[in-house]
Design goal:
By secondary structure, this protein is an alpha+beta fold. Helices cover about 30% and strands about 20% of the residues. The protein has a 6-stranded antiparallel β-sheet, with helices on both faces. Strands 1-4 form a two-stranded antiparallel ribbon. A hairpin with a 4-residue loop joins strand 7 and strand 8.
Length: about 210
Amino acid sequence: YQGLDAGSLFTPGTSWEYTNVGYLLLTSVIDTVSGQRYEAMIRSLVIDALGLSRTIMPTDPPVSEMPDPYMHCLFDPYNEGTYTDFSTMYIEWDRGAGDIISDMGDLNDFHRALRKGEIVGATQFEAMRQFRPINATIGYGFAYEHIQIDSLGITIEGHDGSYPGATTWMAYWVEGDTYISFNLNGSGSDALNSFLIPIIEYLGTQG
């Protein structure tokens, strides 16, 4: 955590910057305060409690193979025409920020439980929803996004993320009271406009 010595990028409240460092610090806090590895806490309080039977934490115990079937995460980091399978990649410095793997059914179940106050309390969840605008369309809270597309009458809340060879969206379409999650085996794509919004528009035509 040598980056903590570098000082602030800006005065708090004046700007924003996405970072995983907070998750890494929180993971260390959980390890220390609970007296057990954070993986055990997450497994007990979230994965097992919600019955997420298709969710794994490849950090504990470490795994070298994924249970079939799964989407392979092929990525060409240097645009040289050579693709590497990053499906089982695990980077120790990302422990707590990118080391839980679920199928889409479990991700929807997790999201539904989050919004119903089954993971954090209602007060804490509303704190997550204190959205601050980062552009004309998107607001960001505590690890939670709000997207308002007035021209289409679409409101989305959730979160997205990417890793080499994979992009994931966990979304709640407010007007349709619908949970939508999907994975793409490619990173850097504009999944919001290319996939999520067309899915919602299609669902809107189905009544």
